Structures are given as C-alpha cells and as structure tokens.
Amino acid sequence: MKKFELPNIYFGGDYTPEHFPKDVMAEDMLLMKKAGVNIATINVFSWGQLQPDEDTWCFEWLDEIMDTLAANGVVADLGTATASTPAWMAKKYPEILPTDETGLRWNHGSRQCFNPNSPKYRELSATLVRKLAERYKDHPALSMWHVNNELSQMVGQDFSEISINKFRNWCKDKYGTCENLNQRLGLYFWGNNIYDWDELMPPMKTAHQHSTSLLLEWKRFINECYMEVAKAEIDILREITPDVLITTNFLYEYKMLDYHAWADMIDFISVSSFPDPKTTNHPGEAALSHDIMRGLKDQPFVLLEQAPSQVNWRLANVNKKPGVMRLWSHQGMARGSDGFLFFQWRASVHGSEKFHSAMVPHIGENSRAFREVTQLGNELPSLSEVVGSDVQADVAIVMDYNNWWTCEFTPGPTALLNYLENLQAYHYPLHEQNITTDVVPVDRDFSKYKVVIAPIMYMVKPGFKEAVEKFVAEGGTFITTFFSGVVNEDDEVFNGGYPGPLSDVLGLKVEEFEAMKPYIKNSMKMKDGQEFEARLWCDILQLDSAESLAEYGSDFFKGSPALTVNSFGKGKAYYVATLPDKAFMQQFLKQVCAEQGVEPVVDAPENVEAVVRSNGDQDYLFVMNHNYEPVDVTLPEGEYFDLLTQSTVEGTISMDAVQSLILKK
Fold first, then answer.
1. Which CATH architecture describes the domain 395-595?
2. How do residues 182-216 score in pLDDT, each as one tens digit?
3. What is each CA distance from 108 to 85, 89, 558, 662, in whole angstroms?
4. Is 385 a known active-site residue?
5. 111 is in an annotated binding site
C-alpha cells in the first residue's frame, strides 16, 4: 500500500489573511465554503511575523488562523516559514546571506535570500520548525507540513567561504586524495591540478570555461546542500509529528535540483505548475510536467500551486480563457494529481504578486475566476473515487538530471542543444496520439514497459547498460538518440568511442558528429521513399550488427545511416542519429508502439487528450478537448458513466470547446 493516499481530493490555495483587515477572514470562510475549499496553504513566508527579533515569538495571529480554519472544516497545509528570513537576521548575522559567483554578497530584501550552508541559518530555522511542530502537533487543522518553498529557485548556488570550505571537505570525503580528484575530474587539463585541498575552488567567475567534471560535482554538491536544508526540517517534523504527511513543492521544468534524489525524503510529490496559457501552447507542456512529477515516486502527486488565470512574471501574462483552468485541472488529475491548490486564494494588495491571479480576485466573488473555481470545487467530491488510482502507461521516457546538467553546460558540439526540448520531441508526438508515457529515472525497473525511450543519454551511469540489455533481450523495444553513451558518471568520455556501453545493444559506433546551424537542414530518406527533415545534429555512424532504416539526404555523409535498428535477443534497439521533424516522430513512434501492441487510449481528433487511471478494479477514462471549438469523439466500445455530468454516454459524442469527460464503465 502506498504511504501517500489522501482521504479525499484536496482543493484550496495559498492563504494569507494576516495581510488583510481582520474582518476579511470571516468573509473568506464563507467564500471557501461556497467554493468547496477544504485546505489552505498558510505560513509560507511568515518567519518575520512569527519572530520579530531573536528573543520574541508571536504565534497568536497564527493560532487564530489555525483555529478559524478548523472551526470551518478547512485543514492546513502548514508552511514551516523558512523560505524567507527576517530582516533582523540579515542585519545581525550577515553570513546567512548568499554570495554569488563573483564573490559579491547579496542584500536582504526578497524571498529565499539565504545561504543554504550557513550554520546560523540552519540553527535558527531548526528552532523555528521545532516551535511550530510542538505548538501545532495536536491541532485539528494540521493536515500536512509544507517544508520551505520551491527550494533553490531564487538562490541556485552559494559561493561564500562557508560553502567553499564545505565543498572542499565534501570532495575530500568523496575522493580521498587530491591526486584522485585530479584524475577523476581531469583537472590536469589546462593545468588546473590541485596539490592541497585549500587550492580547490568551485566554479566561480574566472577567465574562461571551467572543467565540466568540476561543474558537475558542484551541481551535485549544491543539490545535497539543499537536501540537507530540507532534511533538517523533515527530521524535526518526523520526530514531533510522525503521523503528519510532509512535502515540499517542486517546480515544473526545473533543472537546478535533482528531484530523483529528493523523492524518497518526502511523503508525496507536490509541484508548482504554471504552463503558459497562450492559445498556441502545446497541451503536452503540462502533460510532460505531470508525467515527470508522477514518475519521481511512481505514485499520485499534488498540484500544490497553479494559477486560476494569469501569472505576473512573463513578458506578457496571458489570461486562461474561460474553462481552461478547469480543463487543465482535469488534465492534472488524469495524469496523477490527487489535489488542486492555487496561488493564491485572495489577490494580494501589495508586493510583486498583486497582479498574479487569485481564486478571489480584487473585484471579489462577482468574477469569472471565482465562478470557475467554485464550479471546479463543487464537482471534485464526485471524483473522489479516482483518488489513489494509477495512471496506465506501457511506454517510458528515461529522464536524468545529471544528463540534463552535463549535456547543456558542455562546450560543443552545439550551444543549441536543449535537453528538455529533446524530451518534448518524443513526448509530444506520443501525447498527440494518446499513448500515455511514464517519465522515469535511469534506475527504475523497465520490465513493466513495452517501449523505453532515452533521448540524449549523454551520461551512462553504472547499471544502465545492463538494465537496457536485459529489457531488450527479453523482448522490449529501446530507442535512444544522438549524443548518447558519451561519458561516464564523472563526465569522462568512454574509451572506444560513442555510444560507449550502449554499443552492443545498438550494434553501431559513432565515428563523428555534425552540428548544424539553425538555418541548415538535412533530410532523412526512408527505404519506402518518404523523406523527412533532419535538424540540429547528425551522427555519422559505423554499423556493426545494426540495420539502416533511413539515410541522410545531403552533405559529405549523404547516404550514410540516419536511423538504425538492431535485433538483440527477443527485442529491438533503435538509434535516431539526428533530430527529425514532427511528421517523422509521429509516424515512427506510432509504428514502434504498434509493433509492441501499444495502441492509443482513444483515436481522437487533434488536441483531444485521453488517459486512463485504474485502481485495479475500476478504470477511469479521461477525455479532454484542448481545442477552442467543438469536436466529435468516438469512445471505445461500451457504455460509460460520466462522473462530471452524472450521466451515461456511448459511441460518438460531441464535446464542447475545452470540455472534459471523466468516464467509467
């Protein structure tokens, strides 16, 4: 049984009644009841209000909020308030402030402006968390703990003397001797060897490029530092409130932290998800984010922050059109979310986020935003049976944060290489064809899948080669791409060329690669005469046991393989040596999946998404029309009950613009 299973669907938002006159809270409780709100995130950035100086504590205002929520049937996602340090702390202990890569210490004045390695920050935050836990451990409103907030978002790294010395000790513990460090990280290149640990410097501002291996180790170090910040709070909370769920909200499309390393530390994954609601937005953007979050623990997650309408931090902040907020919430549920919270409940009247949308905008309840959240909140109880069910997927995309880091900060072959865009290049065509995809780490068991795709598997970690070979030998289909099998976990190039440890299963070697300017294109010519565009990159291959399925159409390597397949045991391994166009991806992935018996959930018109969740006894079919116009959709055979309309449907049905169906047989 999963540790994480909500008692019902959580619905609410970030709530800051302390920023408003006291009489507003009474109105809030009435509006929350009307909207179906059952949870409120509180106390996220309130350290300064709880502790106005080092010796004074003021919990009475928070007591009132907790008591009021409990009295009105609303539970609390209680923040630990450690995300923003008080002004007095920066003044009295300036070492808590972060230092940038130039050695400049930042000033107090925004959120999350702290050095994660500051002993004083750690000490004072631990005191705060302990006081909160002891005070509210038995409070009826306490439902879950919200540790810090979107960690490392504002301060991605710190270069203070505290962090530099800690990094040296971290490397010393890991490598033992300077010589071992020099060899493993290749610091002899450009004569950057060190002979004493106090000579080791992190990647601060310097004359030219840093060692990529050093950059990788620094990223791993910073990731562990922020994990320590979170774990210090979590350990206190588990000691005092062992039965209360703990989370910290991750960020979608965020590469600064290795979320795979974080997953086991918290009880459930939660995410702040803010896709751009411009009408040209691909619905796969949010779908990929949800698939990544679900894959971290292979279980449902919670949308802890989303926008009721527009955000405030893009160049132009487009509103969500009528019905889109509800549709995107249903999309989140389809892909594994069991909770829907928003930033923010009531629109702020001060600060930089006063024009960020809210469940209750400045005009109040007589607004489109409030009517739409009320509609969503009041229909969610009818969907409660979906809670805890699993998204059904036969295809997996392998994602690795170390790969994301290294392939993008490695100088050459092209600065245009974008790891996330290459994931999207495979995920979006599958999404468009309603072939549901899990996104999994490199060490996940592949045996439950029929097709596994690993785009840009630049770094091959120990065990991955064996896992892929076992999966393919037993009948699975594996797909990887250019710039794969290049380096080991130290960012050291494999001897014998690329794709390194994956050469046997792929049946080929890469002789060289050609990076293309944005305005240069090549082509892929298939054996049946079809021709597709090839862009960004072309690997020039030497085939061993692999068979060529397509050839390049131009340049000095014209006629050489651009797409290969290799039989290995009972399965097949494909190598896509370039970045093909969308038309190829749709056709190729559909064919590969069909060969493995993987069919679309629903064969639907463009921009109609279909996903199945199942609890083992009951399947739930989600059908979502992302078009701004009606479409006809033919359902799989049988009669269905729509949980949203509480009515039966079957056959071909007409769906309104941005309409959802949540069906069970």
1. 3-Layer(aba) Sandwich (3.40)
2. 999 999 999 999 999 999 999 999 999 999 999 99
3. 8, 9, 58, 48
4. no
5. yes
